[in-house]
Amino acid sequence: MVREDRGGPPGGPAAPAAASSVPALPSSVAQRLHHLGRRVACGPPVSVADGVTLLRGGAFRAMNVYLLDDPSGGVVAFDSGEKGMAGPILDAAAERGGLRRVILGHGDTDHRGAAPALRAAGVPIACHADAAPYAEGRGGREYWRPELLPRAVRAFHALSHRAVWDGGPVTIDETVAVGDDVCGFEVVDLAGHAPGQIGLWRASDRVAIVSDAFYVTSMWGRPQEPALPVRAYDHDLERARESLRRLAALDPATVLPGHLGPVTGDVRRRLEAAAEADVR
Ligand SMILES: [Zn+2]
Question: Which of 34, 36, 189, 223 is 20 to 30 A from 265, comparing alpha carbons?
Fold first, then answer.
């Protein structure tokens, strides 16, 4: 559904660049630095399922953006990763016919990160209606409880949210609802970790793309068994458990989470265990 009165269409004229007294680099050097910057921000595109390409961004390559082949041409991005990924997302999408729209799995800082820059490039941004106030607002800080994190993690995350992950509030142009079709996937309800969190489910090959329904990364970015997100970042833990039980009951063959992954093998049992486990 297209939202109205969202502050004008995306892709309006960009604000003029601030005047700079820094001398310009030779174009070949500038171009090499530009390419190096994009390689630092994001790894090469990887095919992870039929019509699904994964971009792994960030220093630990733990920030996932999925490009879905759109039957009408180009690709649709699910989640937008951290803010430095905007250029690599546009580059990878251009090689696949162009970026048609971005759908945020939820409104947290590290999922809306590149969305403001992508919108400025003319791409409409969508999410579930319940996630829109957070994508357009403080990116989850409205209800997070960082005081529950260990002190060192809290400091690391506070800096990362501000300096690395969050691109800031983004205007939501369209909403998607549970049951909608997105590039052959069905939108499913995975709310709990965040309000209006959604995933995408394709029954034909049992592929699920799930944003932060669970983590396979620790708070330091290290791999771990599937677990519910930590309390500090959860909006409604009981609802997160219910969403994960429903996801497990779909019996997915491949699950593509918001960080690290993919998760394959005995997925159902591992997700069932995560849904019932204690949460830190
Ligand atoms: Zn996340």
Answer: 189
Rg (CA), the chain: 18
Beta pairing, strands 181-182 & 185-189: antiparallel
Residue 74 — left, alpha, or beta (φ > 0 → left; ψ -120 to 50 → alpha)?
A: left
Q: Please tell me the distance between residue 23's alpha carbon and the centre of ligand 1 in angstroms.
A: 38
pLDDT tens, residue by residue, 75-88:
999 999 999 999 99
User: What mean pLDDT do residues 170-191 have?
Assistant: 98
Domain spans in the chain, listed from the N-terminal domain onward: 35-276
Superfamily of domain 35-276: Ribonuclease Z/Hydroxyacylglutathione hydrolase-like (3.60.15.10)
110 Cα–ligand 1 center, Å? 5
Tell me how far the alpha carbon of residue 30 lies from the centroid of ligand 1, in angstroms: 32
Mean pLDDT of the chain: 92
Confidence band, pLDDT 50/70/90 cuts, at residue 15: very low
In sequence order, what are the beta bridge partners of 68?
52, 76
Q: What is the mean pLDDT of residues 11-37?
A: 65
Exposure on the CB side of residue 132, measured as CA atoms within 13 A: 17
